[in-house]
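Quick one - first record:
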Amino acid sequence: MTQNNWAVKSSYMTKGVSRHTLAPMHQLASHHYLAGRMNEAMDAYRQILQIDASDATALHGMGQIDLTEGQTKSALDALEKAIALDLNNPEYHVTLGIAHSMNNSLTLAKLSFQEAVRLKPSNLNARYNFALCLLNLGQSKSAVGEFRRILKKQAGNTGALLHLGLSYRRGFFDGRTIFQEMFTT
């Protein structure tokens, strides 16, 4: 058991709370979030954190809500805390990357997306956001490679198709057409 996992388990044990006790609270918070009731979702996550201050899921949820409300600084804080508690959750890294992107910290966003892809290479959401970040950083050839990886796994991914086409249309390949590029790589 890693030290982080031990710390989480020990906090539950000392308070007499099990993950099963918090599961309905997580579901309620998620239900509120998905229904667009951000205040209720935030209140539910705060209640969870009152019971267990080291609940990474609640911190991640609060970070997502902060992002939807444009509170990038507090979102970054909550998401970084969630990742410190659960380093191996790729979704936390994707959300942190999105927060960094919204904060125009593209280099940090790139690192977050890279980590998410490293943790779960099949995560198409992580790959897509990573590719968009690369495109915004001017690393178009790398971005095209990521879009192609996505399309190999999900040929109908409209976002990847659209951005791949835009990449070619913008002339990222020295004026070569999409067909020339496809047949020379």
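second record:
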Amino acid sequence: MENHLAIQLKRILKAVKFDRLYFYLRANSYVNKVTVPVEKDLSTLRPLQDELDQAGVEIVKITMTPGALIQNYETRQSLIFPDAERQETAINYLEKGYHGIALVRGNHVSGDIWYTSADPHKEGAVHPDLKWLKIACGPKDAYAFDMYLHPDRRGRNSANMLQNGILHEIGKHGYTRALGYFWAENIPALWVHRTLQWSELKRVKVTRLLCFHHSHVSIVGKRKERSRWLYFRN
């Protein structure tokens, strides 16, 4: 925990250095923000390859070699991320044991998305979001998270292709259900999830202060259950 707090402090100092403290605090501190947990049955997935071929892009698995070189899993070519911060995030996720894919043109990354097992009895890379999302998880469930598309490379159905890509990738590894969430105020995310036929679960109100979360399930605006504050690590 002490090491993670040091990382959070480093991010805050970086935000101050680049005059972005306001945006950092806004993204990491909020009160009663409504999130929409979702689930997707992986037995019925939308076709992907034709859409990728028409757009001239690929979906590739992300891996890392000694020396922190991010690579395409299949070709072992180095992947070029649009910015150093996102590459650092990818390295961090790989070190935690998470799995990721990227939407690429050649070896240039347009966006990436990540997943990990949601099995509550599995040791290791179970994501902390699952504690405050309050979703009942099993051994055949996987959690998809942190989809990122670089602002200069959005549009042209990129979000749909990237999210559909992670669903196909998760399904290849024996999982039968994918889990995730989006913020209720994020209308583009709402339409991406509905296009790919995710099912919405009970909404959760979340209060966050930097790396600490508090949440409760909300039904028709009423509180159903309480939770203690949770320490949060991504």
